[in-house]
Design goal:
By secondary structure, the protein is an alpha+beta fold. The chain is about 70% helix and about 5% strand. The protein has 3 domains: about 150 residues, Bacterial polysaccharide co-polymerase-like, CATH 3.30.1890; about 170 residues, Helix Hairpins; about 35 residues, no CATH class. The strands form 2 sheets. It has a 4-stranded antiparallel sheet with strand order 2-3-1-6. Strands 4-5 form a two-stranded antiparallel sheet.
């Protein structure tokens, strides 16, 4: 009952007040004796995408999802609160400067450095916002100036470590790879140049195309020259046959009645030949009639030859103009044939040389393609590694200059008042805890007390009504308790 609770509390007010005063004294003493600690606070922002660092490789930036962004921010916060970073920070200042009490009284369980790192971690707080990419770093230390320096040093070491983790360029490795790639490229280039010098090749495809075009032109010229040569030779042969039929010297025919006997002999010979051809239709070639006519023809031919001999002896001879004209044409065509035979030979040799060159190129095309492919692969590898090496060199310079995706948006502050102990909060907490523990102590003492302290306890325990009570205030005695129990 509320009244009973208050009565019990009032009854044991001494122990309740003692517990309350004890907590208040303890809290006051802690506030007065505790060394004040100052808190230095700094804020960093983690940038993403093309805003994180200067675009040195000019590659397409992948868009990050919110979960990826959150993981990156948490990773940066974990690096800020890591044991290694705390240890490097403590070593940079020295244990005697940062924690002189540890240097004066080293712990026996572990090294002073471990104890200093442990206290450093307890005083360091890294907080990440729930919806943003801002990291808040705070550090507590009795020296407010030193606290600011510690936070600044912590952030500097974090940026240097973050650059080596996220932007590790591996410059030395890439430098050796670029050198090896350059050696392979030089070897492949030398092999290709040696092959080109051996086979006198500059541009394989272009030379093949030029040779095919040249072969077509040479083939056309060769066929034209062969046609001209064959035409000149045929004409020369025809003229030679005609020259054999035409006499070179032409006898001047005799004139007058003096040589009529030759004409008569030829006329008689012609008549006999005509008669013989007619008799062949009737007589056999071996018949006496045919034998007689053949004898007559032979006698007539002898007469003609005799008359021609006499005519030749008596007549003057002159050059035959037809023969001379044929001879001139023959000489001209013979000269044309001779002149055309030279180009045919030259063009034939050229065509054979072009065919041999095409054959050599075709035979060595596989080797040329392999060497060209090896040179191209080596060149592409060298270009890729060289570009990556340049990117690594630029990133190494970025690391040396401390450029990273994390940027400070709020420098470490110099606190103007102690952050711990928080006097009002501690005193309010001691007052609240003292009240709770005082009430608990009063109730606990009442639980172990077997004496009656209220009328309700008597009525309940004896099961008889309470007629009168000598309490100071009777208003709290309920009427139901007065009639509790039976009248007997």
């Amino acid at each position: 009952m509320p009244y009973g609770f208050l009565a019990t509390l009032f009854k044991h007010r001494g122990i309740a007040l003692s517990v309350l005063l004890a907590w208040l004294v303890a809290g006051t003493g802690y506030v007065l004796l505790k060394t004040p600690e100052y808190e230095s606070v700094a804020q960093l922002i983690v940038r993403f995408g093309d805003r994180s660092i200067p675009d040195v490789d000019r590659s397409q930036v992948t868009e990050l999802t919110p979960s990826d962004r959150r993981e990156i921010v948490l990773a940066h916060a974990a690096m800020l609160g890591s044991h290694d970073l705390a240890e490097r920070t403590v070593k940079s200042f020295g244990i005697a400067t940062l924690y002189p009490d540890i240097a004066a009284n080293p712990p026996s369980r572990w090294s002073p450095l471990n104890e200093a790192v442990k206290q450093f971690g307890n005083r360091l707080n890294v907080d990440v916002g729930t919806q943003d990419n801002v990291i808040t770093v705070s550090f507590l230390h009795p020296d407010k100036v030193l606290a600011t320096k510690v936070v600044k040093k912590l952030i500097d070491l974090y940026i240097a470590g973050e650059s080596s983790i996220y932007q590790n360029p591996q410059q030395s490795f890439l430098k050796s790879e670029v050198k090896q790639a350059g050696d392979r490229l030089a070897t492949a280039q030398a092999a290709l140049e040696k092959f080109k010098d051996q086979w006198r090749v500059t541009d394989y495809d272009q030379e093949t195309a030029d040779l095919l075009k040249q072969r077509g032109d040479v083939d056309i010229n060769l066929r034209t020259a062969q046609a001209s040569l064959a035409l000149a030779q045929n004409r020369a042969q025809d003229l030679a046959r005609q020259m054999r039929k035409v006499p070179a010297i032409q006898a001047e025919p005799a004139s007058g009645e003096k040589y009529r006997a030759l004409d008569d002999a030829k006329t008689q010979l012609g008549a006999l030949r005509l008669k013989r051809s007619q008799m062949l239709a009737t007589y056999a070639p071996t018949s006496p009639a045919m034998t007689t006519i053949d004898a007559g023809i032979a006698a007539a031919q002898e007469q003609v030859q005799a008359r021609e001999g006499e005519l030749a002896a008596r007549s003057s001879s002159t050059p035959n103009t037809v023969y001379q004209s044929l001879q001139t044409d023959f000489l001209r065509n013979a000269a044309d044939a001779q002149s055309n035979s030279g180009p045919v030979k030259v063009l034939t040799d050229q065509l054979a040389a072009v065919d041999q060159r095409l054959h050599d190129l075709q035979q060595n095309r596989g080797s040329f393609d392999n060497l060209t492919r090896a040179r191209q692969i080596a060149e592409d590898t060298y270009k890729s590694l060289s570009q990556r090496y340049e990117d690594a060199r630029v990133k190494s310079n970025l690391n040396e200059q401390g450029i990273s995706p994390a940027s400070i948006i709020s420098q470490p502050t110099i606190p103007y008042r102690p952050a711990r102990p928080q006097k009002l909060i501690i005193l309010a907490a001691c007052l609240f805890c003292g009240m709770i523990l005082g009430v608990g102590a009063a109730l606990l003492k009442e639980a172990f007390n077997n004496r009656f302290s209220t009328a309700e306890q008597v009525a309940v325990f004896l099961d008889i009504p309470v007629i009168a009570s000598f309490e100071r205030d009777q208003r709290h005695v309920e009427s139901a308790l007065l009639g509790y129990g039976s009248p007997s």
